[in-house]
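re: that chain from earlier
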Amino acid sequence: MAERLRRLRVHGFGDTYHSVEVGGNLRLDTLQAAVLRVKLRHLESWHDGRRRNAARYRELLTAAGLVGEDRLRLPVEAGHGRHIYHQYVVRCRRRDELQAHLSEQGIGCAVYYPVPFHLQECFADLGHRPGDFPHAEAAAREVLALPVYPELDAEGARAVVDAVASFYAG
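^ sequence. v structure.
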């Protein structure tokens, strides 16, 4: 039971990003709530920092000639509302190789949800198989989140873009 409860509090994950059953994000205790109350005052400035970094990436990646079907596809800009870029997720060819290259350069990046929902164990009873949702499956193979945290400065963003450029140049 303890193992199941631990799984349920983190989206039903057995292994990282592999859902065994449907769960939730159920990890807020009283101490975290107190900290969150203080952090909420800074939320807008953090969102602004992420938006600034997303715009910087768009500009730098485009100027470096890295945007296109054979390299990177950038996130779609929000047509309404305000995107906060919790993650800056690009779609790229040779994603796993690029991720390894960035990691070797000391650049944190991540693949979120490498298995599409319809292929997660927790949804197996729905009967979907590989090929049922080809766009979701392609996204799961191609997405890579670049660092976009609010404190990332122009030099740091440029270093990320330079590392991406060096990968595709090689």
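The CA atoms of residues 84 and 120 lie 27 Å apart.
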